[in-house]
Structure prediction request, 342 residues.
Amino acid sequence: MNLFVAAVFFAQLLSCTALSMVPTPHIRALDCDDPESEAAAWAAVTHINANHQHGYKYTLNRIEAIKVLQRRPSEEVFKLELDLLETTCHALSPTILQDCSVRPLVEHAVEGDCDVKLLKVDGNFSVLSYRCKSEPDSAEDIASVCPTCPLLAPFNDSQVAQAVETLLQQVNSPDDNIYFLFHEIGRARIWTLPENAVEVEFVVVATNCTTQDAKNASDGCVRLSGDDEQYGFCVGTAKAAPEDNHVNCTAFKAKVAASDPSAAHPDPKGNPEVAGHGHHPFQPVHLTSSSEESSSSEMVHPTAADPSADPTAANVIVKRSIAAQPIPAVPLPVCPGNKRFF
Ligand SMILES: *[C@@H]1O[C@H](CO)[C@@H](O)[C@H](O)[C@H]1NC(C)=O
Ligand SMILES: *[C@@H]1O[C@H](CO)[C@@H](O)[C@H](O)[C@H]1NC(C)=O
Ligand SMILES: *[C@@H]1O[C@H](CO)[C@@H](O)[C@H](O)[C@H]1NC(C)=O
Ligand SMILES: *[C@@H]1O[C@H](CO)[C@@H](O)[C@H](O)[C@H]1NC(C)=O
Ligand SMILES: *[C@@H]1O[C@H](CO)[C@@H](O)[C@H](O)[C@H]1NC(C)=O
Prediction:
């Protein structure tokens, strides 16, 4: 019996020894603002936007942190922490990100925070997984640049719902127009000074009816799909006096949905996950599709690829302030990178 216990103990000791002899992953030091870090970050942002169907496209503000792990001789895994900012382009719009302006701080900007894992093979990046959170900027930040600017209003606010309804009627008022249905609210703010005004951005979708048809029986109007699919991105303001209302819509064809069209929730007012926020939060976690899942799960299992198992890994990313100290023999990577906007 004692012999048996000893044998088990010895076997465990052996396996521990074997584990500790697994070579630690090679970690390549890369500055957050290195062009290679940026290439990885842009690949990530492109992928995140392609999978984001509600609200607005996001752009890169800053690379917070980066780790590069050797996986196979020709493959590296990049782990990035990214700060993103909302743009003024709707998530479904085909406008390329370079042509989208960042939402100004005074309009109550929304920030995204993403952890992304990418694979680099032969110089090409592909996203293995990502996790993003989004949050409107703090009230204090807005107040510091514009004390009178309103914050984002929840989508289920009754004034917001009323404004969308009124402006949608205006969009649909010319008799020979395409009849549009409401698709989603993008954002809304309620001004009280100098007068009560609800500023709202929303998306409408074209149906097979004219507004004349719809007057008879709007129930029979169905949204156009496939090649005929058409959206309108509308920016408007509703005031106490309806004659002061104005709304402008820009027509667009939706970008090709990268995945998950089932995630659509056309009534943000009725969707409790979205209604109270005032913006469209990210879907919590994303793993990429089947072709990359195998490599993704391979990545999770071998401890050799898990940087959290390597105590030296945590020390590789240093804050910018530390990098300003006397230069060590091996230069430490400089992180976080520069902010592009605010
Ligand atoms: C990397 O991208 C280049 C250019 O797009 C392409 O020719 C090449 O096949 C890609 N390599 C891999 C491994 O995907
Ligand atoms: C729109 O499509 C629906 C379903 O196909 C059909 O019942 C309806 O008559 C169409 N309406 C018009 C005005 O074409
Ligand atoms: C609309 O209603 C009028 C009167 O009820 C009817 O004559 C007309 O045919 C209807 N038009 C459509 C497109 O259904
Ligand atoms: C709508 O478009 C007109 C003409 O292009 C412009 O004068 C007006 O300011 C726009 N209104 C909004 C709310 O963007
Ligand atoms: C709006 O939605 C939030 C979150 O679901 C809820 O707590 C709040 O009561 C709702 N407000 C109204 C006016 O319905």
About this structure: The CA atoms of residues 125 and 187 lie 33 Å apart. Residues 2-20 form the longest helix (19 residues).
